[in-house]
Amino acid sequence: MLGHRPTPGALAIVCLVAFFLAAAFLTSRTGPSEPGPEARPPSGDATSQATSRPTSVREPAPLRAASAPPPADPALVEETSVPAAEEEPEPVRRYRELTRYPSSTRRITKDSFDLLNPGARHERRMPVPDEENNPDHAWQVRFTADRYFVRDTEPTLLSLELWHEGRPRLPTAVEMIAEPIGDGATGGAIPLAVATTVGGVQSTFVPNDYWPSLVGQIRVTAVFAADGLPQQAGSLDFYFTGADRIPARFTGEFADRPLRGDLVVEVGVEVDKPGRYRVEGNLADATGRPFGWARFDGDLADGPQRLPLVFYGLVFHDAGAVAPFTLQQVRGYRARPGDVPHREDMATFSGDYRTTSSYSPEDFRTKENDSPRRRRMIEMYQDAL
After folding, report:
1. CB atoms within 10 A of CB 83
2. How far apart are CA 47 and CA 146, in angstroms?
3. d(CA 58, CA 60)
4. Given 3-state DSSP classes, what are the helix, strand and coil percentages for the chain, each rounded to the nearest 5?
5. What pLDDT, on a 0 to 100 scale, did the predictor assign at position 39?
6. What is the mean pLDDT of residues 340-358?
7. Which DSSP helix (H) or strand (E) runs through 313?
8. Which terminal residue of the chain has fewer beta carbons within 10 Å of its beta carbon, N or C?
């Protein structure tokens, strides 16, 4: 409005809006596979990925429901549409786009790397010995592993690759040592067997063989050299949940049903340690294309029970998904606020679940998420801008 000077309060809100949108934009680039601190666990100089693939699953068995469902059930969100102005400011338009679905649901696209590859690492080639002493990057190394989070009796694969002036070079005199680090870590360092491959040097080991009662970080240090390169050293960290500390397991029992325009997939779990849990899963359509992600956040008591993964109906329309649907890459953990690591991983589940009911596009809602909070935020942005 002409002649109107923004108040200090409005300017503060504008700043908050800009900060929020910047953070939301960065999050939307890959999707909230591991929101918050867990999105990028600390590592040394390394990166990777690993996913589990299907085995058969059992038929659903009568189980009791989770003791506390998610605090905000997307199925109960209001559907009253909010008309958008034809000439809305870009920040408001962007906010509407980022909040089309409740926060517990996301659409998966080809750019959703973190959702498609949960726990993947992101190490790149690094100059050796370092940037200061190797400004022309004549020597480069990549020391990485196949995942950030290792649990139960899973093996982990470590790899070391070396380049000189862009050409692969075989590392020599390679030694790798693994040891638990941090408060409460027990047990000494162990040497790892290494093997030469076409691309470098690899080592596979099972942390549970040495530290079955550990929930914490493990650091692997590699020492290596090459013709023309003096001895170098590097390290990487990953999180480990030993078999004795697994808080819950997936039972392989599932059920699916429509609920107020959404799809609910019930996931059976056996909980040994009550607490706050997060469970996630990806949904693929009849062509095998992953298109949706859903998350459960809630308190679970001990014993067998079911928890709901609610896939918001609009996701099915936006993605053009065709039934039947398959739940994939189910994973979860028990939260440990304030501890390092911040989580105890549930045991890996390698099975998929295919929905048993018949679904058509008419079964799913077509309207955007229109929660009271979303309306308040949009009104606040509009007032501020």
Report:
1. 5
2. 7
3. 6
4. 20, 35, 45
5. 37
6. 93
7. helix 313-319
8. N
pTM over 0.85: no
| Tens digit of each residue's pLDDT (9 = 90 or more) over 105-123 | 999 999 999 999 998 998 9
Separation CA 297–CA 277 (nearest Å): 6
Across-strand partners of 259?
262
Contact 286, 360 (CB under 8 A): no
Q: Is the pLDDT of residue 207 over 50?
A: yes
Cβ–Cβ < 8 Å for 335, 361: no
Helix axis angle, 8-28 to 372-384, nearest 10° = 120
Question: Would you say 91 and 258 are in contact if contact means Cβ atoms under 8 Å apart?
Answer: no
Look-up of token digits 């909010």: 82
pLDDT interval class at 90 (50, 70, 90): confident
Phi-psi region of 3 (alpha: psi -120 to 50; beta: other; left: phi over 0): left
Q: What is the pLDDT of residue 380?
A: 80
What tokens appear for 143 in the block? 């020391």
Residue 26: strand, helix, or coil: helix
Count how many Cα atoms sit within 13 Å of the Cα of residue 371 in the half-sphere of its side chain.
Answer: 14
Q: How many residues does the chain have?
A: 385
Question: Do 222 and 160 touch, CB atoms closer than 8 A?
Answer: yes
Q: Which two tokens stand for residue 154?
A: 């899973």
**Cβ–Cβ < 8 Å for 311, 257:** no
